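Customer escalation, tier 2.

The customer says the design service returned an amino acid string that "doesn't look like it belongs to this structure." They asked us to rerun it and document both sides in this ticket. The original structure tokens are below, unchanged.
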């Protein structure tokens, strides 16, 4: 059973920072973060492949940084200069090539609230 365990969410004031972590139980081809705000669709925030190919949503470029530690099967999302519109449940996502198909996995979600 593949597991993704997230941590690091919380309440922060505008302009503040948070760091999210997601540890996978096995190595993954690609890992990343999505978020979903109330009444909105889930959207990609950032992703990183094992080859360090990185993709960011335009709205977080220059403020968020995604990194991964392959020895720990862990992906991190450093979020700086947070804005109220960053408030959402953040979900870790991972992909792995399996013998017959691509496996997609999700974490349980962690709440990030940006408010004064």
């Amino acid at each position: 059973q593949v597991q993704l365990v997230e941590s690091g969410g919380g309440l922060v004031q505008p302009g503040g920072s948070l760091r999210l972590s997601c540890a996978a139980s096995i190595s993954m081809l690609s890992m990343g973060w999505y978020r979903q705000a109330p009444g909105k669709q889930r959207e990609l925030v950032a992703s990183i492949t094992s080859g360090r190919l990185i993709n960011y949503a335009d709205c977080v470029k220059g403020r968020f940084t995604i990194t991964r530690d392959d020895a720990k099967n862990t992906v991190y999302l450093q979020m700086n200069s947070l804005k109220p519109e960053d408030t959402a449940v953040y979900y870790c996502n991972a992909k792995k090539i399996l013998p017959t198909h691509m496996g997609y996995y999700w974490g349980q979600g962690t709440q990030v609230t940006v408010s004064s």
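Tier 2 assessment: The sequence is consistent with the input. The mean pLDDT is 96. The chain is about 0% helix and 55% strand. Sent an explanation to the customer and offered a walkthrough call.
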